[in-house]
Structures are given as C-alpha cells and as structure tokens.
Amino acid sequence: MSTNQSVSPIRPSTEAKGPPFPSPRARRVERTIGIAAAVGTACTVWLGLWVTPPDATKGNTVPGDLVRLVYIHPGVAWVALYLAFGLAAVSSLLYLWPRTRSLFWDRLAAAAVEVGVIFNICTLISGSIWGRPTWGVWWAWDARLTSTAVLLVLFLGYMALRRVPAEPEVRAKRSAFVALFASVDIPIVHFSVLWWNTLHQGATVLNPNLSPTIHGSMAWTLLLGFVALTLVFVWMLLVRYRIGVMEDWLGSGEMDMALTERRAEGVDPDGSADRAAGGRAPGVGASLAPPSAPAVPAGAALLSDAPTPTGPGAPGGPGAEGVAGAEGAAGDGVGMLPEGAR
Amino acid sequence: MWRDTLLVAGKDLRIEARSRVALSQVAPFGIVALVLFAFALGPDRSLMAKGAPGLFWVAVLFCTVLAVQRSVAVESVDGARDGLRLSGLDPAGLFLGKAAAVAAQLLVLEAVLGVGVVLLYGARIEVPWLIAASCLLGTVGLAATGTLYGALSAGLRVKETLLPFLLLPIVAPVLLAGTKIWQAASASGLPSDGNQWLRLLVVFDAVYVALGIVVYGPIQESA
C-alpha cells in the first residue's frame, strides 16, 4: 500500500518517485556474485566432466560416469534443504518477532522459499536420475526422499498462499505463520518417515560410490560445487528480492492508478466530455469516493476495456483528499484488486 | 482461559447439535470414502484388511478438512468472527475451545469410521487400548493444526481449496503414526512397536497446541 497519501490527479503518485531501484553499490554486489556464481559453476562442470576420473569400482554394473552427479546432487540438496528453507524459517520468525518486524524479512523469506523450491525440485530430479541406474527405480519410498518431497509440498503451499492477493502486511504475517508451522513440522516429518522406512536408509546417506578414500581432484570438485551452488543461490535470492520490491511498488502504483481512474470515471462515465465541462465541479470527487466506497468499481475500471480517461481531463483538486481517505478506509477490499487484475 | 475454552467449545458443539452438519454430512462422507477405497482395492478381503489402518486414517484426514472448514464457516456469517474478537475472550481459550469442539466431533467420526472399517474391511483389533490412545492423541493433533490453519485461511476467498493443500502435508506424521500404531495393535504386529509412535504423536500434539496457544491471537488479528 502506498505510503504517499497525496494522489496527484493524473499519474500515480509513486510513479513520480520512480521505481525503487537498488543503489548502484547493491547492483554491483549483485553482479559480482552473479559472475562469481557463473564462473564457479563453469569450473565445477569442467572439473566434474573432464578432469575428475570416472568411478572405477570393480564389478560395478552402473556406468562409471554416473558418479559425476556427486558434484551436483548433494550441493543442490544442501542449498534447498538447509540454506533456503533454513533462511526462510529464520526470516519468517524474525518478521513475526515484533522488534524485528519489517517487510525486508518477509520479502527475504519469500525469495528464499521460491529459490529453495527450485533447488528442491532439482534435488529430486537429479536424485531420480541417479537412483534409476543405481537402485533400478526412479523413486524409492526412502526416508530421505520422502521428507524432501513433503518439504517441497509444504513450501509449495507457502507459495500458493503468497499468491492470494492481500495487503503486503497481511500477506506477510499470514505467510510467516505458515512458514513457522511448516518449519516446526519438518523435524517431526523427518523422524516419522525415518521410523516409517529405515530399510533403504543406508543407501542414500552414504552412497557406495562416495567412499571415504575419495580422489583428491574429486574432493576439490565436490567442495567447489558446494561453493558455486551456494553462490548461485545467493545471486538468485538477491535478484528475487529485488523483483519482490519492485512488485510491491508496482502493486501500490496500480492501486493509485485504479483510484485515479475510478475518480475520473465517477466524474464523467464517458470520459470524453469533462474537458469541455471543465471537469472540476468542487466536491464532486469527494462525494463520489466516500470512505465506505465499494471497491468493485475501481477494479471494474481497471479490468474493463472501456476507454478510461487518463489524459489531462482527469479531475484533481477536491477529489484528491476524498480518494486518499477512501484508500485508507476501504482497506483490504481495495488492496486486493490491483493484484487480482494483474 | 479454561472458562473461555468451555464457553467456545460449548457454543460450537451447540451449533453442531442444532445443525447436525458433521453428523449428517461429514460422517456419511467418511463412509463414502471407505466404500470408494474398497472399490479401489477390489473385493480382495485380505488386501482390504491389510490396508484398513491406513485407509481409516486417510478417511479421518479428509473428514478433518471438512470439520475444520465447518468450524471456520460458523464464524464467517453475521460478523461472528469480529464478534468473537471483540468479546474479550482469551485468544488461547478461543483456540482451545474451537480445537476441542473439532476434536469432539472427530472422535465421534472416528468411532463411526472405526466400526465401518471393522465391518466393511474385516480389520482385526487385538489391542483396543492402543488404537484408542492413538485416536485420542491423533485427534488432538489434527484438531490443533486444523484450527490453526482454519484461522489463517478464515479471511481468504480461496480457503476451500487452499486449506486442504496447506493442512494435509502438515498432518502427514499423524497419518503415519496412526497407521503404524494400528498395525502394531493388529494380530501380526507387536504392541510394543506402537510406543515410539505414541511418543511422536505426543510431541506433535504438544508442539501444535503450544504454538496455537501462543499465536492464535496474532493470527486472529491478521486474518
């Protein structure tokens, strides 16, 4: 919701401020991390595919090259299961804590969950690719696989909840609670599936291919893979966070725009004659947008294809205060519309 | 807090006693689910008896979603939610009361479904107290989580679709524990195997009841 209460007659007030682009330094940091992530990933790919030796275990029916997945799969899982969801849980908790309540934590949690879900899916896919030749099945109801899948579903629910249009603060609180409940559930799910199926446990915790006497170059590649994937995560997190800030800005801008159009529509439904009439009957704008004004017309104006006056004919003056008041009072209903219309 | 709990639980149960929604809609739905499960597994009675514990708990989970939705729905008309908020009742008591009412309805449903499973699937129960304990503990957990998510989704226009999606993965441990305890209590199982699952249920209940007592107030404000 816009903090700027004075709605300028023609353009949304927030537009005058310009989008909240990050500072040049923040952009520089983001770019540096992005380049480092790309270089790290490229090095991991090169080391993993060409420099390190294939698995040479005697009598192994599995293709030796398959072991190269070890440079990707654990790293992806580390990012998804620990970094991303851990960060989401911590920042949700920090949002709920009154002293540290700030939309920063909410956006960070949202960004972490979204990136984490991507990494979680990658974990499941790369695990399946590895599991098919080694275990003979794409999916085993093993404890680790099961808890990873449940985790994915839990955070998909979080993302679904975030898509429900609401004011940023309401959405933030709601999502933070869901993240909290889900995080509390994770250890319980972990233990329950561990007890549920302990049969296959040995196969995943320490894959037979990953012996303690790991080759020197393999160990370094593995480590590099972890670092590179962590950098990829941080970069994606920064980009997603920036997008989140701009989305919120856009949402508040659309809010103002909808109100402007609503007011213009109220003065002249055809949107054509107000210039001729002067378009500035004192008090008209205010009377058309009382604090209890239903939110529907604003959304209808935004959604419909009917010509809406955005030109210089849109009225200002006395209407501005009335609309600004309606913005505050109509609350939830109005706040939902721009997102729904998007 | 306890007085408020009784007040709210009494109110919800009185509404249920007068409207009979759980009895005339949710319980029959559970029976329908049991019949459908039987169709899915074919007429093989031994297979059905084997799957009975899990099917029982899946049916209970589905009924939980319905019971929670009903529990939210009774507050959604006539500004009842705002009324409760303004009533000065302790939010913790409110949470416990709503959860207790859901739990009471679920226990009745479980009794119906339990009889249904025994009759329809030929499930065997060797250690009844173990199953009773699992039903009691599982119901507390289901009611607590359900009430929390119900309150969270109360103000949403998409609550009907979102609630099951959010709630069912969370209560997966209850399904697992309940099924395992029933298996332990059946002829082929060892009753002592059920102990760790009972402990798991106790932990689950304690976590979510405590969480609900603490956060129900803030959730209500935000919904």
Brief summary:
Chain A is an all-alpha fold and 342 residues long.
CATH architecture descriptor name of the largest domain in chain A = Up-down Bundle
The oligomeric state is heterodimer
Strand-pairing-aware structural class of chain A = mainly alpha
Q: Can you give the mean pLDDT of chain A?
A: 73
* Annotation, overall tally of beta strands of chain A: 0
Question: For the record, what CATH class of the largest domain in chain A applies?
Answer: Mainly Alpha
Distance between the termini of chain B: 22 Å
Chain pair sharing the greatest interface:
A-B, 27 and 31 residues
Strand content of chain B: under 5%
- Which fold name is given in CATH as the topology of the largest domain in chain A? Four Helix Bundle (Hemerythrin (Met), subunit A)
Number of domains of chain B: 1
Describe this structure in words.
The complex is a heterodimer of chains A (342) and B (223). Helices cover 69% and strands 0% of the residues of chain A. By secondary structure, chain A is an all-alpha fold. Chain A folds into two domains: 21-252, Four Helix Bundle (Hemerythrin (Met), subunit A) (Up-down Bundle); 253-270 and 279-341, no CATH class. The radius of gyration of chain A is 27 Å and the shape is globular. Residues 1-16, 199-208 and 273-342 of chain A have low confidence and may be disordered. Chain B has helices at 2-19, 21-41, 45-76, 80-86, 91-121, 128-153, 159-170, 172-185, 194-222. Helices cover 85% and strands 0% of the residues of chain B. Chain B has one domain. Chain B has nine helices and no strands. The model of chain B has no long low-confidence stretch (mean pLDDT 90). The A-B interface holds A 96, 150, 153-154, 156-157, 160-161, 164, 170, 173-174, 177-178, 180-182, 184-185, 188-189, 191-193, 195-196, 332 and B 145, 148-149, 152, 155-158, 162, 165-166, 169-170, 172-173, 176-177, 180, 196-197, 200, 203-204, 207-208, 211, 215, 218-219, 222-223.
